[in-house]
Amino acid sequence: MKGINFRGSALLLVPCHGPLKLSSIYFVFLEDCSMSNLPHHLLPNVFLLILIYADLGKLHALITCSPGINCLRYVAVGNEPFLSTYNGTYEATTLPALQNIQAALTKSGLSNRVKVTVPLNADVYQSSSEKPSDGGFRPNINNVMLQIVKFLNDNGAPFTVNIYPFISLYSDPNFPVDYAFFSGYQPAINDNGRSYDNVFDANHDTLVWALQKNGFGNLPIIVGEIGWPTDGDRNANIQYAQRFNQGFMSRYMSGKGTPMRPGPIDAYLFSLIDEDNKSIQPGNFERHWGMFYFDGQPKYQLNLGSARGNGLVAASGVDHLAKKWCVLKPSANLNDDQVAPSVAYACQNADCTSLGYGTSCDKLDVHGNISYAFNSYYQINDQMDSACKFPGLSMVTDKDPSVGDCKFKIMIQTDSAMLNGRPGFLRIVLCVFVFLLFRNLSF
Prior knowledge:
Its EC number is 3.2.1.39. The chain has helices spanning 57-63, 94-107, 142-154, 165-171, 199-213, 238-254, 339-348, 366-380; strands at 2-5, 21-22, 25-26, 28-29, 50-52, 74-77, 115-117, 119-121, 125-127, 135-137, 159-162, 189-191, 194-196, 221-226, 266-270, 325-328, 394-397, 428-429, 434-436.
């Protein structure tokens, strides 16, 4: 089982045009697009990933999208509710939410076909040493974790975990770079005869040990998110992303698991497309996990091991707006009192995460940085004349200001996909999970 994960925190999105294909992996456009465009004989190969802000009334229709075909495998409740940064906010509500959805599925006669899970961050467990065998659940959430694990086990559901080796590198400047990849880092960690030469294996098996020590050693594990960002940090770049994702896919295609779970891994790459409206509280890299740019063009090649093709296929039928950009006037005075608030306003309402140390645009000078901010705001507002009216500072040009790897974006056309009087946003989803945000559900 393999797939790509996509969440809809994006403003610049490809309009709906029919199934986008990555080799043998098909995507279906939901919410704003009908599933009727996807050939029914392909539906058994896909799961559903979609944000639903409603009750379970839509769920039955999604599951039975075609007679005799089960389109949905899992319902995921929330996402990473026990992050340490949440300070326990969701500890009391996550298990009841799981139980409520399980009850609704059982009442609807769907519990044998659809399983309920909750994607958890890898910080719910830890090791007292570098060895996975010293792993256990985080002490402050140990009790609730055991309750959830028992619930999953009792209902035949998998434990879903999001593992990001990039975060290890981001959080610790002394973390060995090669240990984050699948290149056979040496010296490997020896854990009672089991060898660990990459942090993914060590992280995954720390979870296995935490489960095993509590009597759930056979509970299935799904890696709900794994990937590498391409911008927003010195270690977030296209070269590292391609290296990591290809390394992971090569392992997947070979059927190689981890020392504690040597069989094939259930895992989903994160993410399909960049999310330029996503929170950057964890870091600027959060908006750059996509394997595709916002216009559906692949950032790099990735061998997915398909007989039909070996790489990522660009979206078709995507049109851009005119080749014009909003930039800082050459005559503008950098000491003008309006410069700082103008840049701040542009970045607050658009995306400037490609600016800064180690990013794709870190070679820009002051003029370039200001121009990038202005253009980002201009494009996100569909090149409206009023969006390039920073007082006495900005102008529109037809000369591409891009420099090297720093690309000044041009907005894509969305007016051809008008739905319900608004631009039709892409809800490209490889059917993986249905994210039911339980705080918005009512039973």
